[in-house]
Structure formats: structure tokens, C-alpha cells
Write the C-alpha cells for this entry.
Amino acid sequence: MVGSMLLRKLLRDIRHSAGQFAAASAVVACGMVVFISQRSAYHSLLLSRDTYYERYRFADFFVHLEKAPESALHDVTSIPGVLRARGRIVRDVPLEVEGNEGAVVGRIISMPDRRDDLINDIHMVSGSYFPGAAATEVIVNDRFCQANALRIGDTFQATINERKEELRIVGTACSPEYVYAVSSPQQFVPNDREFALVFARESFVEDAFNMTNAFNDLVGLLRPGANVDDVLDTIKERLDRYGVYHKYGRGEQLSNHYLSEELKGLRNSALVTPLVFLAVAAVVIHVLLRRMTELQRTQIGLLCALGYPRLRIVGHYVSYAVAVAVAGAVPGTLLGYMLGAKWTEMYNLFFRFPLLETRFSVTTMMNAFLLSAGMCVVGAARSAARILRVEPAVAIRPQPPSGGRTAHEGALSFLWDRLPLPWRINARNVLRARHRAFSTVAGVAVAVVILVLGTAVTDWMDYIMWFQFELVDRSDMHVDFATERSRAAVFDVASLDGVQRAEGVLQFGAELRNGWRTKTVLVLGLPRDSRLYRVYDTQHRPVRMPADGLVVPERLAKALGLSAGSRVLVDPYLKDKDERFATVRAVVDQYVGLTVFAARDYLAEFLGEPGAVNGALIRAEPEALAALTRDMDDMPGVKAVTATGAILGGFEETVSELTRVSTLIMGAFAAVIAFAVIYNSSSVNIAEQERDLACMSSLGYEHEAIAQVATNDIMPLGLVGTFVGLPLGFLLCHGLARLYETDLYKLPVVMQPDMYATVVAIVLVFQLVARWVCRRRVHKIDIVRRLKTLE
Amino acid sequence: MSDSVLYSITDLTKSYQMGEVTVHALRGVDLEIYDGEFVVLLGPSGSGKSTLLNLVGGMDTPTSGHVRLRGTDIAEFGERELTAYRREHVGFVFQFFNLIPTLTASENVALAAQVCANPLLVDETLAMVGLADRADHFPSQLSGGEQQRVAIARAVCKNPEVLLGDEPTGALDYETGKLVLEVLKDVHDRSGRTVVVVTHNAAIAGMADRVVRLRSGAIQSIESNPCPVEPKDLRW
Ligand SMILES: Nc1ncnc2c1ncn2[C@@H]1O[C@H](COP(=O)(O)OP(=O)(O)OP(=O)(O)O)[C@@H](O)[C@H]1O
Ligand SMILES: [Mg+2]
């Protein structure tokens, strides 16, 4: 006879509890799918990012300025912490692309004719780096070309310095600086159709912008160990006369910031989510093995009598848990890697890397196995401890374990008497096997939490969009002027055909300082009773711009320690403007970007330029929008035109598709959990009640009636779980929203009643399905045989 | 039958603490069990037969006293030594067979064989109890008597020093019970191993070499039986 008999017994025990085994394994598998997919996506993104940054020398610090002569570069490279620096010209200009009616913005970035060891180099996707002699050769980011069906050799128009230039595409590329290609913090998702990166010859750009031997953008690498803030401070000092607008380290660089936040989230979620699943698996295994060791008490006694060492017997039952882990981890890992590749692909919709590879990591796989086996063994721990306590002389006796407490008939006798007879069986079961009832409640609660989170993510997105584009920004387009203008410029815009309303605004970047705390923000001056841009306080009441002082978003107030009445130092990123104190008048709600508001006229006074504006918000007739965009692009003094809808349009397609997919996956996971838990504890219930059920059958009860008795407790317990899960889910949303709050955005905690209703309905369906399956099981019990057998 | 002493039990007591009450299951038992004899422990319910058998089998530890197997006191064994003792020296047969329902007859026997050092061949022991053709049947496919014979084969295949049976016929009818006793006797005759059988059925005493009567946890009498009868001639 070959093979260990204990192994055979294990395999047969697994076969006899196949349904429950599969249920527990499925939960483990879900955990592993999440773990492996997120882990591998994380690693592959991390790897892609690091190699990308390394190979293309992504800068350590960034400085935007007005205009500095090339000679100023020496002032920077002579700073001890600076390894190298590169001066560039970067400007946003309106583009005209055939077949695109929208307000297309191109970011012109100057590139040297020869590219050796360039800081913030670009990765050529197709074509070549300025092969010909023509000054107007440009390289454009490949995503923009794709979105606009542009090929090498195609041309488009750019309005540079009020002159139309025809640019010819000689290559497509991507840049480590624009992995997440957004133009500003206000645009929080890439819009490849309306935002282009245009890499142009330095000589051409210098001429076009009258910037010969000058630069307005500085990027550089640090020496190892150098402190980026100190270096930036020194740079600001040395270059201040050239008008430093904005300075920041790699950490605050927009694309990198989004990428880092995503990676951070992914890393956390790759750890926490699988743990939740594995905890559920542990509970399922606990219930299952507890029942099994109870039922096999005499078998355990026999093994003792035969002289099997205790630990081997314990090992035998723990093996069951390990088998669950392995059975779940193997398909979970495979599926995880498949999903991980998909996941990484989906990330590629937002992030642009030259190459993204899914890395198969043995360590990750080992961790996955250890993690799942570990949690499953934890689930088996109580049963193992019970085995260690078994006294062989007692265990070998055939009497079943003491039947447990009688139901609480004392205090609840009133209720008890009113309970229909079959329900009393259920009530006794719940009271007798509280751990099992608890497992059902906990499992359903976890499923509800997962569903709440899943729908909340979709709702977050919807809510932010609704808040930002329905409540706050009611304009159709934003126009930026090249310089400060008098208010008359707004009337020029307002008089264009199709414009319904135009409001002049004054905006600039600034550093806000309160003691040692500083933040870089956008300051937006609005008309005091603006109708196109409204600001709301944390209770969502509209806030009128105060005559003087600032209105700051809540996140900024927290970060800088400000409240209404505080004074804060404002250092405008404008040439020749000194820092001054301003008073905070109100704190408002804001989800995206970091924008400080003020009355436009107050800001103009603040800058010492009364009556100045440098942009306008416009509402227009929908059918006139395309023509208006073109007209305004051609207007003298207009730097850029952005359509508000453009931000929205690009957003909805990609994001909602993505959230739908992930919500669906979450839903499937929740279903697995709810089903596994209900099925498992019902199976144990049914097995334990088989004798009672057989008895009822012999008394003449119908199968259906018996099935009902066996599954009566599912819905009430599920209901309890649902109502435990809802507030838990809400709290978790709250916690997550706080966890993911950054300078760039915060997540709203949305409590739409219909969302909760949906979740409750879905969980109800899960329960009904689980109940149906359990009932079918009851129908299959061979009741006659059950009555005959002893035990 | 040889005269060498296999077990020497002296002043053995076992009491259980049940809350306030102390139950004295054994109150000072002195007994010698000889190599190769067939002993029947007889007594009314609750007299301590199972307790005594379990102590001899190393399933339990006494409150006081000694159980010496050829001079080694198993009463002083710890958990690990007791396990090894049960593994190598004892074969148990229980009233309710205690077969693993998910293992076939031969697998149940192999389960015991695999754990000890010098087992007999599984197939041979099954043949010995007359069940060679039922080797691949699961317990649920066997009658009670057949199940008990599998249990005997399981005990025998360990090639133990002593076979201990606690009411091995207790769950069986008259004919089947006798059949099982015949198998036990047959094993005893062929292997020359010591067999101790607990029963409250006085008729079974007829097949024993010696009959030990227990009452209230103490030995009431020990009788030698000069000419044991064959199990098939027993009547009750
Ligand atoms: N684990 C235990 N805890 C408490 N009391 C026990 C335990 N095991 C046995 N007893 C008590 O010890 C006494 C002897 O029990 P034992 O099982 O040895 O009797 P027995 O002679 O085998 O009876 P039966 O013929 O009914 O099997 C009884 O009074 C019993 O109640
Ligand atoms: Mg007994």
C-alpha cells in the first residue's frame, strides 16, 4: 500500500467538504488576485518609472521664471549642491490642428540641436530628432498625435507671438516630465486631444519668442546628498531679478506627484485589501475546521490510540487549511498576473511610459503563498488547539460533545414563546453556534464594505466633476492674456460673436507662507459677485468674495495652519513684486488643485496695478464655441484658450470606463465573499441539523419545509451583516478620503442614499442566491440513510 | 501459556474530579497479566473496567499506582512516551469500531501499520479476519461485525504486545458477536499474544484463561479457567 493514509484521509475529507473547500479557496483566490495584480502592477510601474527617470535624466529641481540670460546659468551651476542645470524656453501657445475644433493648447519646449546627456531628455517613439535643416521641424508627444490622427510629415499651426507658424512633425516622443500629461493642477486628468507637447529647436524658439540667448525655465540635477529646498532657495536668491515665478523639487513636479500618489495608493491597497480577503478566508476555515474536528472527535481519539503523535494529528488538520491556501493561491496567482498585466495596461491610459513590462517576481509569489498559508493556518489555530487538548480516553467514547447551552429562554421567554416552531430551531442554532452566526454577519459586512468602497470610488469621480464643473466653474472657456491688461480687454472679448458673458480675472502663482510652513498656490482674483465662478464654504453655502483679503481652501488652511482672521505672507511669482501680508477672510471647500481666491480689484491693488486683469472667464452659445476658440486664438495679446468642457470630456471617457471595470471586479469579489461565508456556515448548519431534518422528514414534513428550516437564518443574519457593513463602509470611505488627501486633490465623502440602496439590493441578491444553493443541498440529503447511520 | 509476567499492576487508583464531587473509578487495583494469556475483565456498568483497560493501554494516566510492563512503569510516562508506547506495544479494539469513515477497510488497517515500526502485512491481517475480499470497501459498506473485524485486523497488524478490547461485541448481535470473538480467539491462538477483553457479559468469561471481576473500582475476584471453551460454544 503506497501513500500516507493520513494524506488519503485529508484528500477524502476535502472531497467530502468540496463545496466549502472551494468556497474558502475562492476567497483566498480573490485575495491573491488583488495581491498579485496590484503588487505586480506596482512593481512594474515603479520599475518603469525609475528606469525612465534614470535613463532620460529626469530633473531634481524645476524653476519657472520670466526671462534670464544664458549667463545666469552659471550662477546656478556654481551652487555647491547643483550637479548640472539646463535652461529652456517653455511656453503654452494655441494650436490649430486639422479636424480638431477644440481649444488646443501646445506647450512649446525648446530642445538643443544636438542632444547629448540632456536633462529631461525625450524618448523618441518614431521619426528622428530634427533630421532636416528647417527651423520649423518639431517633435510632438505621441499620445497627442494618436488622438488627433497626426503622422510624421503632417503639419499644424501654432500662434507664436501673435504670428502663425506652420510646424512640421518629424518625430513623435514621450517625456519623463509628462508621464501624467496634464498642463496645470487645475486639469487633473490628461487630455491628449487638446494638450500637446511640442519639442522644437532651440534656435527657432529663441527667435520666435524674442528670447535669444535667454531662458524662462530651468531644470537641473542635484549632487548626491544635496538638499533640494536649500538649493532652490539659493537659486531664488540669485535669479530673483529675472522674476522667479515658481520653484519646486521633483516631489512637487505635477506629473511625478500624480504618479507617486498613485504608486503609494497601489502599494497600500496591495497590502490591505488582500488581508481583508484572507481574514475572511481565515474565518471560513475556522468555522469549517471547528465543525470538522468536532465531528471527527472520535477519529482524533483513535489516531491517539493508534499512537500517532499529537503534532502529526494537528498537522493533519492544519494541512486542510494549507490545502485551502494552496488551492486558492495557485489560480489566484495566475489570475493575478493576468489581471496585473491588464491593470498595468489600464494605467497606461493615464500614464505614458516608453515601455511597461509586467515583472514576474518570485519574491512576490512566495510572499503571496506565505501570506495566504499563514492566514489560513491562523484560521485553523483554534481547532488545532482543541486537538492538543483532546484526551484520548475521553475522545474515543462515542457520545457526541455536550449539546451546548439551552437557548436563552429566561429573559426572552416572551419573545421565545411567540417564535414559530421551526424558527426556534434556527434561534437555538444561532445561540448555540455563535461563532458561526458571527462569521456570517462578519462576511456579509465585509462584502457590504467592499461594495460601498467600490461604488464610492465611482461616486467620488462623479461628485468631483459635478462639484467642479456644475457648481464652481460655470464658464465655457478660460482665456489667458499674455500680460496684464486693462479692463477694456474684457470688453473686446465680450463683444465677440456668441459670447454671452465675460468676466475679467486676475491670476498668478504665489508662495504662501505662515511661519515655517509654505505652499505654492494659484491665486485667482474674481469679480466680487462672479456668476461664472462660484466658491462654496464647507457647508456648501456660496461665498461672496470679500472686499479685501483672501479666501483659502480648507486643505491649504490645514496645511498652513490658517483660519479666518489669520494673516499670511503672499509672495507672488511675478517680477518685481514684493511679498506682502494678506488676511484670510474665509475657508472654502475645494477638491482639485490648490487655488486661493480674492476679489479681483483687491488683488490688483495688492499688486499695485489697479484695474488690471490678465484673463477672462467666458460663457458662450454652445454652437459658437468652436468658432470663438479660433477667433480668440487669433486675437492679439491672447496667450491661451482652454475650453472648460475639454477637461470634462477627456475625463469621462477614460475614468468612467476604468471605474466601471474596477467596480465590477469589486462587485464580483464581494459576491464571492458573501457567498462563501453564507454557504459555509449554512453547510455546517445543515450537516449539524441533518439528524433533526431527517427526523422532521420521518414525521411527514415536506422536503421544502425542511429546506426552509435549514436556511431560515440566512436572511436575518445577512440583514444584520448589511447594517453593520454600511456604517463601516462609510467610515472606511472617510478614512481613505483623508489618507489620499494631497496638495493636488481631496476626495469627497459622498453619501448618496441611492448608493446605499444599491448596495443593500446587491447584497440581498447575493444572499438569495446563496440561500437557493443551500436549499438545493438540503433537497439532496439522503434522509433515509441519515436516519440509519449511527454517530 | 507461559508464566512470565507481562504487566504488573500495583495499587492503581484513578479518580475524576467533577466539580465538588470526586469520582473514584479505581480504588487500588493489584493485578498481574501473564504473557500470552486471554483475560476477561468482567463487572457491572461503572465498575471501572474501561478505566483499567485505558490505563493499561496508555490512553490515560493513573492518579496513583504503577503499571509495569516487564518492569517499566508506564504510569510515569509523559505524553510523548505514552504515544510511543501505544504505537509500538498496544492494539485497541473498541465497542463502536471507530473506523475512519473516509478510508477503506485496508486503508484503515494501513493507517495503523504506517505508524509503527514492525507491522504485519495489511493484506495478510485482513485475510486473517476473513475480509480479504472486502479490502476496498468503506466502513459504510460493511456490516457491524465486518467493521469490528476490520478493527481487529487494524489492532493486530501493529504486531503489538497486547490486544485490548473494550466491549468488542457490545454493539453487535448474538451471532455476529460470537463471530468476532472467534476471530479474536483465533488471533490469540495463532499469534500467542496477550488479549484483554472487557465485557459485562458473563458468558464471554467462558472462553478466557482467567477472569477478573471488578466491582466499584476494586477487584472482587480472580478465577483461573482450566479449560476455556471455544467461542462458538458460548451461550447467552
Ligand atoms: N472522564 C471521566 N470523567 C468523570 N468520570 C468518569 C470519566 N470516565 C469514567 N468516569 C467514571 O468512572 C467510573 C468508571 O467508569 P468506567 O468507564 O471505567 O466504567 P465501566 O466499567 O467501563 O462501565 P461500562 O460498562 O458502562 O462501560 C464511572 O462512575 C464513570 O462515571
Ligand atoms: Mg466501559
